[in-house]
C-alpha cells in the first residue's frame, strides 16, 4: 500500500522519500527547504504548497551519492534529481527550485516523469533538464535565469514528450529540443531569452546518436527575445555559437510541423549566426543534416529584425502555407504572404 507523508521545513525530504518507498505521496508544507533531493523510487508524487510558497534552495540536507548532472563538474549540485531504472512515473508539482549550481529539475534515464506548475529560477546550468528519458511532460512551469535551456529535452530519440503551457524567460534557450524526436511543444510563452525555441540536430563526440524528427511545434508565443548567447566565455550559452534575437529555429530537423505560432518583435542584442525571427538551417557542418520534409503552416511572423524569416533550407523539400511575414530571405517563397 502506498504511503502519504507530510514534510515540514527543517525536516529531510530525502528521508521521507526513502522511508516511504514506491508509490509514495510526499506533501511539502509551505516554507523553505535547504537541501537537494534524489527521487529513485517508482510512482512517487512530490507536491508542494505552490510555486513561491514551497521553495527548494541549496543546502546540506541532500544525499551524498546523488548522481551528478551529466557532463558537469563534481561540485555541481542540482535541486531535484530523478535518475535510474526504477525512477519511473514520477510527478513533481507546485513548488519553486532556485539557486542551484546545476539544474533545477534533472531527469536522466527515467520514464513518465511529469513536472507540473514548478518554478525553476536562477539555476546556473539548466532549468528543467530531461535527458535520455521517455514519456515526460513539462506543463505550466516557469523557467528563468539559466545559462542554457529553461526547459530542455536532450538525447531522447523516441521521447513522446510534451512541453506545454510554460513560460520561459532570461535563458539562452527558452525551450531546447536537443537531438530528441517525437516531442510536442505546445502553447508556450518564450520571451526575453536569446532564442525562444531551438530544435537542434547535431552530433557530439561521445554522445548518443543525434537527430530531431517527427515533432510538433504549435500555438507558441515567441517574442522579445533580445539577449545575447555564446558571446562570452562562461557566459550565457557559452558552449555554442553567438545567437540573439531569434524566436524559433529548426536546425537540421526532419519532418517537424510548425503551426499557428506567433513569432514577433524579436531583435538581436548582440552578434548572431541567425538573422531572423524564424530560422531554418542546415547542421551538416557539425555532424547533422539539412532541414527536410518540414511543414510550416499558418504562422504569424512579424515585427522581427533584421528579418522575419530566414530559410536556409530547400523550399522544394518543405511545405509552406498561409504564413504571414513582412520581410524574409528568400522573399519569393510560396506560402508566405505580406
TrEMBL record:
On the tree of life, the source organism's domain of life is Bacteria
Q: Which SUPFAM superfamilies match?
A: Pectin lyase-like
Q: Which residues fall in a coiled-coil region?
A: none
Query: Which SMART domains does the record match to this protein?
Result: PbH1
Signal peptide boundaries? none
Q: Which Pfam families match?
A: Beta_helix
- Keyword vocabulary terms for this entry: Repeat
- InterPro entries in alphabetical order: Beta_helix, PbH1, Pectin_lyas_fold, Pectin_lyase_fold/virulence, SCF-Subunits/Alg-Epimerases
Q: Where is each Right handed beta helix domain found?
A: 104-277
Entry-linked PANTHER family: F-BOX ONLY PROTEIN, F-BOX ONLY PROTEIN 10
Question: What name appears for this protein in its UniProt entry?
Answer: Parallel beta-helix repeat protein
Amino acid at each position: 500500500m502506498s504511503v502519504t507523508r507530510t514534510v515540514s521545513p527543517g525536516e529531510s525530504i530525502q528521508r521521507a522519500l526513502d522511508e516511504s518507498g514506491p508509490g509514495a505521496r510526499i506533501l511539502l508544507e509551505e516554507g523553505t527547504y535547504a537541501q537537494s533531493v534524489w527521487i529513485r523510487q517508482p510512482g512517487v508524487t512530490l507536491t508542494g504548497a505552490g510555486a513561491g510558497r514551497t521553495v527548494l534552495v541549496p543546502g546540506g540536507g541532500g544525499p551524498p551519492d546523488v548522481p551528478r548532472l551529466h557532463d558537469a563538474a563534481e561540485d555541481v549540485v542540482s535541486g531535484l534529481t530523478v535518475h535510474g531504472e526504477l525512477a519511473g512515473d514520477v510527478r513533481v508539482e507546485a513548488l519553486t527550485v532556485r539557486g542551484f549550481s546545476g539544474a533545477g529539475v534533472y531527469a536522466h534515464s527515467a520514464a513518465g516523469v511529469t513536472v507540473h506548475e514548478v518554478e525553476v529560477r536562477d539555476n546556473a546550468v539548466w532549468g528543467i533538464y530531461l535527458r535520455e528519458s521517455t514519456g515526460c511532460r513539462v506543463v505550466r512551469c516557469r523557467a528563468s535565469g539559466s545559462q542554457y535551456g529553461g526547459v530542455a529535452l536532450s538525447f531522447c530519440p523516441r521521447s513522446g514528450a510534451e512541453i506545454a503551457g510554460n513560460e520561459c524567460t532570461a535563458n539562452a534557450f527558452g525551450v531546447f529540443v536537443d537531438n530528441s524526436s517525437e516531442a510536442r511543444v505546445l502553447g508556450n510563452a518564450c520571451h526575453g531569452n536569446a532564442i525562444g525555441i531551438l530544435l537542434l540536430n547535431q552530433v557530439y563526440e561521445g554522445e548518443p546518436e543525434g537527430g530531431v524528427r517527427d515533432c510538433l511545434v504549435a500555438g507558441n508565443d515567441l517574442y522579445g527575445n533580445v539577449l545575447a548567447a555564446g558571446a562570452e566565455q562562461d557566459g550565457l550559452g557559452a558552449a555554442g555559437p553567438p545567437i540573439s534575437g531569434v524566436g524559433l529555429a529548426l536546425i537540421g530537423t526532419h519532418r517537424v510541423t510548425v503551426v499557428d505560432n506567433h513569432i514577433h518583435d524579436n531583435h538581436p542584442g548582440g552578434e548572431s549566426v541567425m538573422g531572423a525571427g524564424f530560422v531554418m538551417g542546415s547542421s551538416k557542418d557539425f555532424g547533422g543534416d539539412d532541414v527536410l520534409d518540414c511543414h510550416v503552416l499558418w504562422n504569424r511572423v512579424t515585427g522581427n529584425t533584421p528579418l522575419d524569416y530566414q530559410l536556409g533550407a530547400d523550399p522544394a523539400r518543405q511545405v509552406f502555407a498561409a504564413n504571414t511575414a513582412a520581410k524574409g530571405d528568400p522573399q519569393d517563397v510560396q506560402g508566405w504572404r505580406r
